[in-house]
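Comment thread on ticket #2218

A.B. wrote:
> Attaching the input chain for the structure job we discussed in standup.
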Amino acid sequence: METRKEASVGIVGLGKMGIAHLAILNALDGVAVRAVAEKQSMMRKGLGTIIDDVNIYSDYRVMLDREHLDAVYITSPTALHVSIASECAERNIGFFVEKPLGLSANECEALVREASERGTVTMVGYCKHFLETFRKAKEVLDSGQLGKPIYVTSHMYVSQLFSQGSGWRYKKESSGGGVLNILATHLVDILMWFFGGVESVTCSTKAHYSSEVEDFVHAYFTFGSGLAGPLDASWSMRGFRLPEIEVTVQCERGMLTVTEDFVKTFDDADERYTMLYKQDLFEGVPVYVGGAEYTREDALFVECLKTGRSPELDVAYGCRVQRVTDAMYESARTGRTVAPAGRE
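C.D. wrote:
> Ran it. Output below, let me know if you need it in another format.
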């Protein structure tokens, strides 16, 4: 990539996340959104009435051909992620793709190889890495102050679906799956970040409100370290206005619980709880749209564009998360314990 004072970015898909990234990127120094591509004419028209310095396209391919872009944000339905990302990689245009990376690991493998061979800067949007509470939990676990983790329980719940859903998220062909692929991959990512590679998984799923995808998922993970424990997730759980992740780790010398809102530890040495809220841990960001984590991930991606290096959350990592997700679906389908393909 040529060295430029300001990185030029395009966005494919003007849903919630596309609009959020547009706002954040245009508020960060050293980067500007120059073009967007969106199929829906109403969205294109609406954007055109409020922003006059961004070129708007109905076809992302035309955008890629006409614009001189350093990177593209891919915030389209899951089924389109890999094909759009592949066209960016062919042109050696960096890309940020919202999670999950694709419908399955199989379709992601060629993309990972091409991006690696070309040295394309890539990132997958596992934004929970950029939340203060999860960062602090990772720091505590890695420090060893509570001893070795011996058991972990986790869940991700939200009150989202209590009747037949409409839209691409509830169609298997366009989403790759339901609550697991669309939502709970955030939790799979957190567990892999905290504890490393998954050795095996046993999983069951249940569809109640949806006709094509799952609304509930329950799994039991065994990690390469020998640590084990359950994951539970649903987008049809009452009492959760916003998505909530909770991970509780029983350790040799205490316990840790982390959510988006707090980190709580119990240390056997002094037999007391310590509670840190996200307000206690908050680190300022230049612009706040939806959550500080989105600004932090965008700032890191822009920095990587300028240095020519991909972050740890690149497409290779996204593909590893996808392999675990695939193993969960296979286990639910076959009733067997499954080892993720290509596990490390």
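A.B. wrote:
> Thanks. Noting for the ticket: The mean pLDDT is 95.
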